[in-house]
Amino acid sequence: MQKTSARYQVMLVALLSINFGVLFFDRNALNFLMPFIQPDLKLSFTQVGLLSSALSLTWAISGILVGAWSDRAGRKKVFVVGAGIAFSLCSFISGAATSFLMLLGARLLMGAAEGVVMPVSHALVVAEVSPERRGLAMGVSQNFGSNFLGSFVAAVVLPLFAAALGWRHAFYLAAAPGLLFAVLIWFLVREPEASAYKADDRLTMTEAFKHKNMVLCVLIAILLVSYMVITLTFMPLYLTAMRGMSAQAAGWLIGVLGLSASVGSFIVPAISDRIGRRPVMILTPFLGLLIPFGALLLPGPAWLFALLFFFGWALIGLFPLFMATVPSETLPARYAATAIGISMGLGEVIGGVASPFVAGWASDVAGLDAVMWMLAALAVAAGLVALGLEETAPRKRRQPLADVAEAQPAIA
Hints:
By secondary structure, the protein is an all-alpha fold. The chain has a single domain, classed as Growth Hormone, Chain: A, CATH 1.20.1250. It is 78% helix and 0% strand. The chain is built from 17 helices and no strands. Helix 1 packs antiparallel against helix 7, helix 3 runs antiparallel to helix 5 and helix 12 runs antiparallel to helix 16. The radius of gyration is 20 Å and the shape is globular.
């Protein structure tokens, strides 16, 4: 790994974090605007779920294929810049949609553009940031901007903007920042040294799954991506339809999730750097029970809802660990984008695609309360699966698993 200054490492992580936040601002815009879009386009709950599933499907395929492509090409920056331009244009198309099918097409294209960003961004972090700070750096780059901008700011600003000017103009607002950050990344971020990558050396999915940690990270990704996507897709509708809140009040409460994950982006990965990945990944998912049980059972007041949502959403701080940090510490660094793409992609294609469709169908059949029980089951299952993980944190292992794998003549 080439030596980089602390200043450049901080700048890189900050820029990637904000860029990922802009991406999630665009991705989540549909969820936060759904109380306005659903009656206008006359969508069923099943169609609402399908819109989230569509984006997750192309996001996953893109992450798996393009992540591996970027490893072989030895180039990272151009992929991130191109994706930023593409997903911004897709947000404009979403605002122009006049039917379910048009909106579905826009979300399919947006997922294909956005799925590139995370595995390639994390590969940049692996190449530039010291291993002892890798968990914190990956946590901030993936979770801080995405949750502060994509969950808090978007949840608060977009419903207010839509109420004043209409939901279509809110999509146009969401699109503009992506173009700006594509320009900034092009001029401020450098390509890692080409010697870190081998164009003729590739990691197959079969070889990746010879490592128990990769299998378990994918299982956790499926469970917790399902938890996240279902919450963001259906919680605004649950709070307005079942708890009688206005769209603006629900937006503020959902915004608490963004604040929680913004704080958790520092705290959860930093704790894992010190005490290890495994204990953090076992215990944190159980905090996710606070959100569905709070929504189901709590009569009020609003501040107590906000408190439970804040602590329950701490599990989002785990996403960089099972999607990026543990896979990148389990396998050699030259496979970073490929390994991250596998973990993220399968989590999205199975959890993100299937779960909102199932949740939408269950809501049409049994009511929106069914969604809350699904969330509780997903949180418990993730904590139990994490019991099988092997520790990878550099401070807790004399030799990281990735170094062991690098030293072996073949992956085993």
